[in-house]
Amino acid sequence: MNLIEEFNAYRSEMNEKIMASDNKVIKRFFNLDTNTYADGAVDVKTKEMIGLACSMVLRCDDCIKYHLGKSYEAGLNKEEVFEVFSIATIIGGSIVIPHLRRAVEYWELLEKEGRQDV
């Protein structure tokens, strides 16, 4: 199992366990997150770019992987992703660089596999 498959499998497994708790607040939060990234006045592609940049600045590797997958799914290309990386690095500073490295690795895997089911 590769990094993408491991991440997606773990995320799915844990989300199922979390949802099985039937906690109304958690379910509402997850729903809010889902609806936030839906197409609206701002398109999905742009929302994913914003989510990716914010995740990098906040230094959340799981969030970065998630938004990279969704960005790939939304049709971002390498040039666009690297512009998002540059914005996140400028805003977040050098502390973002280790996350940038892992993000580049994950993006390369997405491109290599040509995955549409992330």
Automatic annotation (TrEMBL):
InterPro entries reported in the protein's UniProt record: AhpD-like (IPR029032), AhpD_core (IPR004675), CMD-like (IPR003779)
Ranges of residues in domain Carboxymuconolactone decarboxylase-like: 27-105
Gene Ontology molecular function, alphabetical: peroxiredoxin activity
Presence of the UniProt keyword ATP-binding in the record: no
Domain of life of the organism encoding this protein: Bacteria
Keyword Oxidoreductase: yes
Keyword terms: Oxidoreductase, Peroxidase
PANTHER family listed in its UniProt record: ALKYL HYDROPEROXIDE REDUCTASE AHPD, BLR3452 PROTEIN
Name of the protein in question: Alkylhydroperoxidase/carboxymuconolactone decarboxylase family protein
Organism: Cecembia lonarensis (strain CCUG 58316 / KCTC 22772 / LW9)
Lineage: Bacteria, Pseudomonadati, Bacteroidota, Cytophagia, Cytophagales
